[in-house]
Amino acid sequence: MLGILIAPIVALGIGVWAEFADLSPPLLLAVALPAMAVTLFSVALAFDLRPVAVIAAGAAIGLMTFAIVEGLYLSIHYARGGFLNYEAYESQRAMAVALFAIHVGVGTVAGLALGVVGALVASVAGARRRTASRAA
User: What is the rounded CA–CA span in Å between residue 83 and residue 70?
Assistant: First the structure.
C-alpha cells in the first residue's frame, strides 16, 4: 500500500528540487515516470482495477503528480521573491497559469500512456491467470 504514495512523495521532492536546480524536461520525466508507474501498479493491485480503470488511473496519477510538482515549484518560486522571466509576456499570473496548465497536460498524457501500458499488462496477466485456473 506504500507504493500508492510514491508518486506524490516524489512530486513533492521534484517541486522543491525544481526551484533550486535547472531541470530539463527529460530529467523531470526520468524521475517522475518510474514513480508514477510504481503508484499506478500499486493502485491497480490494491483496488483490482480492470484495464479501462487502469488507463483512467494512469491519467489521474499523471495529472496529480505534475500538478503537485508545478504547484509547489511556483509557490516556492514566488515565496522566495522570484518571477517568471519571459519578456514576451507582461502578466506573471498568466504565465504561471500557462506553465501550470502545460505541466498538468504533459503529466496527464504521460500518465495516460503509462495507463495504456498498464492496461495491456493487466489484460495479459489476467488472461494468463484465467488460462492457468482453467488448466488446474
Answer: 14
Query: Domain residues of the chain, as ranges?
Result: 2-135
Instruction: Give a three-class secondary structure readout of 73-123.
Output: HHHHHHHCCCCCCCCCCCCHHHHHHHHHHHHHHHHHHHHHHHHHHHHHHHH
Calculate mean pLDDT across residues 93-98. Answer: 90
CB 92 within 8 Å of CB 83: yes
Question: Is-contact 45 113, C-beta < 8 A?
Answer: no
pTM exceeds cut of 0.85: yes
Q: What angle do CA 20, 83, 108 make, to 5 degrees?
A: 70
